[in-house]
Amino acid sequence: MSLHTPQQADTQRSDDRTSAVPRVASEPPGGPRAWLVWGTAASVYLLAMFHRNGMSAAALQAQERFDVGPALLSVLPMVQLAIYVLLQIPSGLLADRLGPRRSLLISLGVMAAGTILFALAPDARAAVAGRVLIGAGDSLVFLNVIRVAALWFPRRHYSMVSAFTGIAGGLGQLVSAAPLSALLTGLGWEASFLAAGAVNLLVGALVLAVLRDRPDGRPAPSHAFPSVRESLAEALSHRGPRIGMAAHSVIMVPFTVLGVLWGYPLLEEGYGLSTRAAGLLLTAAMVLPMALAPFLGRIPGSRPRLRKPMALVLAWTVTLLWLGVVLWPGGLPPFPVTAAVVLLSAFASVLAPSVSFDYARDGLPEQRTGTASGLVNMCGFTAVMLGVVGAGVLLEFGGADASFQTAFAPMTALCLTASTAMTVLLCRADR
Question: A Gene Ontology MF term for this entry (predicted)?
């Protein structure tokens, strides 16, 4: 039996040919109500990004509070990301079955519990348990926010809404940088993270009141869902999700590695900046990209033929910039050079969803995008996790030669591999 009927199937987007997959009879209408529903879901993503990246601003305090070295310190975000990555496929399947509203309510409750545990953790083991819960709750968020976009907006608007979703995540990163650093300095560890946990409950009330799974009059999805194996086979049978997996494994990785843990240590210990100055730089690095993202994010949806060059330029720019940092003779590059690399990495990270997840939807019906999106997210954050841990291990055990320059070598190697794989996939599609 076919996994989807012609009435369910969406138009398969292609850079070089017209798809044979039919379009649904009527697309979601979009409009003000759709933006309100999406905005509510996006507020959950903003909060999740705050929780995900808060370890960067709190890294040095956590090192002192739990009396751990760089390698053990990297375990905190690594465990969180490991849980996030491992749950991407189950989260995608759950998103297809439960719908965004219930999934996001579950995620907020689990993240609140993890944040409270992390705030009150007496030792590193309890802190790790808190980050595990945060990672589990976080794993449900992004997939359901872009699922709201798929269910409430026409297909041509999907990449633009994905770009706005990236902006919401960027705002979460902004709040997790200088504002969280100031909050930790002013209120202390426990009060700051307990307040963050309370915000989860307030956002949960907003989700309960506003968010709905689909526009009025749109049919509910069939309960005859394919098995896990069939869902994975369906997603991987299309070239779009495979390209999205490779693209996400490079475009969003470097700035996410900085945001998750190593941004503050690089700037404070590598360049001697104050905590305030480091926070301001990481905050400023997000502002310009977020301003441009709504305009550039329209490209994959409105001009599909530009999607391929956009993906290639973003991937190879990020890769070559960090290759230059790692291979710079005599140590880290001058500060202005590294600052420019951080800025361009932030720019790529904000645009990553509009490219990666637009490819992920190719050939799939709107009701079953969760699994493909989970695969794309899993690949990207596996690369992030390996980059975070690789840096920590090299800094801890690298001896006298250990430096932030060598610490970013594993991340750069992963970016080079993913860029090459994406280029091969795109070139094969042209044949």
Answer: transmembrane transporter activity
Domains of the chain as residue ranges with CATH: 32-216+228-429 (1.20.1250.20)
Q: Is 255 helix (H, G, I), strand (E, B) or coil?
A: helix
| Distance, CA of 7 to CA of 18 (rounded, Å) | 18
Distance CA 421, CA 84 (A): 23
Cα(76)–Cα(81) distance, integer angstroms: 9
Whole-angstrom distance, CA of residue 245 vs CA of residue 260: 20
- Residues 6+ positions from 219 with CB-CB distance below 8 Å: none
Assigned token pair, 297: 């994010």
State the number of CA atoms in the 13 A half-sphere of 31 facing the CB. 7
Task: Give the tens place of pLDDT for each residue, 43-92.
Answer: 999 999 898 878 777 877 888 888 877 777 777 777 887 898 888 888 87
Distance CA 1, CA 225 (A): 12
DSSP code per residue over 275-318: HHHHHHHHHHHHHHHHHHHHHHTTHHHH-GGGHHHHHHHHHHHH
